[in-house]
Design goal:
The complex is a heterodimer of chains A (107) and B (121).
Chain A: E1 4-7, E2 10-12, E3 19-29, E4 34-39, E5 46-50, E6 54-55, E7 63-76, E8 86-91, E9 98-99, E10 103-106
Parallel strand pairs in A: 2-10
Antiparallel strand pairs in A: 1-3, 3-7, 4-5, 4-8, 5-6, 8-9, 8-10
Chain B: E1 3-6, E2 10-12, E3 18-25, E4 34-39, E5 45-52, E6 57-60, E7 68-73, E8 78-83, E9 92-99, E10 108-111, E11 115-119
Parallel strand pairs in B: 2-11
Antiparallel strand pairs in B: 1-3, 3-8, 4-5, 4-9, 5-6, 7-8, 9-10, 9-11
The chains are: A mainly beta (107), B mainly beta (121).
Chain lengths: 107, 121
């Protein structure tokens, strides 16, 4: 099973700042199967990025994903009020899907 | 539009079973996987497994093997997730989510609204 470790646990930033979130896999994975989700309080997760760098439908271009091998990142170019939420990475390239523990982006 | 609507909240006693439903609309029901993911209070996301309703093919997370069963009813476009031998640590919001595309391995989009299952004596 692929273990995903996200860092930092919490990121304290202000609107307009840039956020960089990290996701490290326990072994090398194909970037084709790495996704990022956003979850606001009381809401289900929402797909932001799939295939490590492809934005899902309707996702603003201030969200971008990158990485390969064991190290992946999600960047939010300029934080807006609605971006303060918890973000999860996911590996879905095997029959055992796994999630990282999450990064909370707070004001 | 694609929509997944889940059944309502449940309260169960330890040792019991729970069945949560997920009714799909707006797409070809037999073409996409449905995944089940849960979230304990204040915790992260945990994958339980997936089902392909078209061929009734299932894959379960190793942790839940023998305790979870996923089924689908093509006539009602509904997928079910049953979890048995419930313990207090099964208290969580349970989500269904559709695969984004047709392939075996896809991200999940969209998600249902979630169903709170509370296990308490």
């Amino acid at each position: 099973e692929i273990v995903l470790t996200q860092s930092p646990g919490t990121l304290s930033l202000s609107p307009g700042e840039r956020a960089t979130l990290s996701c490290r896999a326990s072994q090398s994975v194909s970037s084709a199967y790495l996704a990022w989700y956003q979850q606001r309080p009381g809401q289900p997760p929402r797909l932001l990025i799939y295939g490590a760098s492809s934005r899902a439908t309707g996702i603003p271009d201030r969200f971008s994903g990158s990485g390969s091998g064991t190290d992946f990142s999600l960047t939010i170019a300029r934080l807006e009020a609605e971006d303060f939420a918890v973000y999860y990475c996911q590996h879905y390239g095997t029959s055992q899907v796994t999630f990282g523990g999450g990064t909370k982006v707070e004001i | 539009q694609v929509q997944l609507v889940q059944s309502g909240a449940e309260v169960k006693k330890p040792g019991a079973s729970v069945r949560v439903s997920c009714k799909a609309s707006g797409y070809s029901f037999t073409t996409y996987y449905i995944h089940w993911v849960r979230q304990a209070p204040g915790q992260g996301l945990e994958w339980l497994g997936r089902i392909h309703p078209g061929v009734a093919f299932t894959t379960y997370a190793q942790k839940f093997q023998g305790r979870v069963t996923m089924t689908g009813d093509t006539s009602t476009r509904t997928v079910y997730m049953e979890l048995s031998s419930l313990g207090s640590d099964d208290t969580a919001v349970y989500y269904c989510a559709r695969s984004r595309g047709y392939a075996d391995y896809e991200a999940s989009d969209p998600w249902g609204q979630g169903t709170l299952v509370t296990v308490s004596s």
